[in-house]
Amino acid sequence: MTTQKSSASQSLISNYQNQLACFASRNHHIYAQHLIHQIHMPVNSDTPFNQQITDCFNFIKAQGYPHPILIGAIPFDTNQNATLNFYSEFEQTTPNSAQQPAHTATPNTMLHQKKLVERPVFEHSVKLALKAMNSGNMQKIVLSQATEFEFNQQHSPEQLFTTLTRQNPDAYSFLIPVEDNQYIFGASPELLLSRQQQQVRSNPLAGSRPRSSNTEENNRIRNELYHSAKDRYEHQFVIDNIRHQLSKYCNEYSASETPDILTTSTMFHLSSVFQGQLQPSAPDALNLALHLHPTPAVCGTPTPVAKQFILSHEGYNRHYYSGLNGWMDAEGNGEWVVTIRNGLLNQNKIRLYAGAGIVVGSDAATEWLETEAKMQTMLNVFQF
């Protein structure tokens, strides 16, 4: 039996690279190595992506692999190509047994740093957005920036993932191969959606403050965030959207009455939880997540107006940033997280991203500094 599976695996992957994909949460770590097929296509109502997913799962099962898995990345703009990676099998372990020894960091020398969005451009976009809000066209928008770093050496994707999970044990860490031998990787704090049989859960975040190294100062920041009318207002847009989109698929559900504070390695966030019991006819995990995407937490309100503003004024192509990534099995169970606190790895170049929610009362300079603080999660991986 082992010989037959090995032979089938060699045949199946002959035209594809044997690239590792990883996804980690506080509850489990998933590692997949035997890449069978990779699909690059938009995942929206105009494309037959669901049929292609079904066909891939059925084909892999027919080769004698009963537990295939899809690990993929969806762009912010679903009119662009997503990357869907299909693996013949995967290993799932608990975090304790999955812990790997820390790698000795090789000193990095930064050769070049380039802003894809300069601060004056970002702040000008914020002011345009505030003007649109004052005219009644939008209530919220999320604007972002990106910076590309070039180092003197290539980085091992596996080592980056190990460092990320060690530095951010409570985040959703991911390492996913995409087109052109690149990887997206990161440590997202935000669960867009998980589905396990008929149980569904979402943990949206909106409203943030950078952490300090001083305990007393952190207590002050947490209290300020929790009682901030501006941040509560921003957060409510996200909660209302999640409840509206998911409740119609649930027989019963519950949502946080008031937000909590979620703490990451670099930030504080307002955090709420939605959970429910799905109807038998509810979509699979990926399609449920797509119904939520893009949320006001990464786009704005109303969504179509905010999205068009971003595409017209932000000044660069987000691609996978503020999209979603995660995994799904052939039964439709899975986890999908918002692609934030992330980077795009291309040999010795790393592109990092960060955004901030803009509502009435936002200050352009303050929002720029928030994006810089959020980028620190990823810079810590490279000891900067």
From TrEMBL:
InterPro entries: ADC_synthase (IPR005801), Chorismate_C (IPR015890), IsoChor_synthase (IPR004561). Its EC number is 5.4.4.2. This is isochorismate synthase. Keywords: Isomerase. Residues 121-374 form the Chorismate-utilising enzyme C-terminal domain. Pfam families: Chorismate_bind (PF00425). It is an enzyme of class 5 (isomerase). One of its GO terms (molecular function) is isochorismate synthase activity. Gene3D superfamilies: Anthranilate synthase (3.60.120.10). The keyword Isomerase applies. NCBIfam families: isochor_syn (TIGR00543). It catalyses: chorismate = isochorismate. Residues 196-220 are annotated as: Disordered. The keyword DNA-binding does not apply. Belongs to the isochorismate synthase family. It comes from Snodgrassella alvi.
